[in-house]
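Quick start: read one record
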Amino acid sequence: MFKKILIANRGEIALRIIRTCREMGIKTVAVHSTADTESLHVRFADEAVCIGPAPSSESYLKIPNIMAAAEITNADAIHPGYGFLAENANFSKICSEHDIKFIGASAEMINGMGDKAMAKETMKNAGVPTIPGSEGLIADFEEAVSLADGMGYPVMLKATAGGGGKGMRAVQKAEDLLGAWDGARMEAKAAFGNDEMYMEKLILEPRHIEIQIVGDSSGKACHLSERDCSIQRRHQKLVEESPSPFMTDELRERMGKAAIKAAEAVKYEGAGTVEFLVDKDRNFYFMEMNTRIQVEHPVTEEVINYDLIAEQIKVAAGIQITGLNYLPNLCAIECRINAEDPANGFRPSPGKITSFHAPGGHGIRIDTHVYAGYTIPPHYDSMIAKLITVAQTREEAIAKMKRALNEFVIEGVKTTIPFHLGLMDNEDFKSGNYTTKFMEDYSM
C-alpha cells in the first residue's frame, strides 16, 4: 500500500480523497495555487505545496511543478481526481517514468479511450452496441454530406478529441450541415488543438445513463450499476441519480454486461465509467468511456455502500477486485451546487461567501470545500458543493432533497439552489419523465 499520495487537484474532490486516505492510514500532500491558499484541502492535508499562480495553466495543469512537489515530498503515488490532468496521457506516462504510481488509467488507455472515433471502433469490435455512424474520421465536407444523406437526418457531428459538449453539433436538415461542420471544427480546434470529426445518427428522446465499472491489473472487471445523468445544460450535468427511473431489471443486466465487456476488452485498470445513450425504446448505444473518477460518484457510493476512492487506491496498489457486480438497494440523488445565477443564464458568480449553513439529518451528504468567509475564485469551475440525499424510495429522496435545499444557506454569491428547488417540484422530473432535452424546454 502507498505511504504518501499527492492529490493533483483542488476543491471538494481533493478534500474527498484526503478523507479516504486518512481512513486508510495514508499520508497526503495537497498542491494549490496562490488563489487556493485558504481552501480546506490545503488545511486538511498532511503537507501542502504551492505550485503556482491562480490560472490553472500555471498551476494545476503545470506538470513539472506537480512532479517537483511529488519528488520533494517523497510521494509514491499521485491521485488526479477529475478534470485538470485526470485524463492527460502525458501526465500518466511521466508519473510512470518517475516510478510514481498514477492512480488512474495508463497513457495507452487514456489515448485509446480519449480518441472518440478509436474508442467507438474498439467497442464495436468487442460487441458493445454503438451508435450508427461514420467508419472512423470524416476526410472532408463532401464525405460528411454523403454520410448524412445516406444515414438520414437528423445527425450529430462530433469532434474526435471532444469533451464537455465542445465540438458537437446536432444537424436537423441538409442546409444546416455546412454551418455545423465549420462551427464544430473551429470550436474543436480552439479547445483541443484537433479539428478531426466523425458523425453519428442523432438518437431521439435520449437518456444519458452511465455504468460505473472497476477493473484490476488481472484484466477482470465488475460493474456497480447505473447513474442517470440526463438533466444537463449544454452537455454539462446538473443532477444525477441512481437507480435511473427509466431502468428495468432486464435493461440493467444487459447494460451491465456490455459495460464489463467494454472494460475487459481494453483490460481497463481502475475506476471508470462507460457512458451510454438510451433511446425511448430502451435500446442503448456506447457513447464514451471516462477513464477517471466522476463528479457524481457519491450517488453510487450511497446506493451500494461502497467507497470508490478507496477502491481506486487499492486497485492501483495491485489489490484484486472481488469480481462481484453490485445493484442499488437505495435511491440517491445528487444536485450540483454551482456559484452561478440561474435567473441570468447561469452566469458565474465568484466572490466571498458571507454566510454558510449546511443542511443535516438522516440521509444527507454534502461534499464541499467552502465555508463562511471563503472567497470563490473566478479562475476555476463554478461547482462549490454537491448535495446528495439517499432514501428507501425515489419519492422520499426527492422530498429529502427539497427539505435539504431549503435548509442550505449560502450568502454573498448567487448559487443554483433556487434552480434545484424548482426542479424538485417539476412534475416531469418527479415522475421520471425526462430526457437530455429537458433543459431546452424548462423554465424556472
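Residues 132-201 form a domain with the Dna Ligase; domain 1 fold (CATH 3.30.1490.20).
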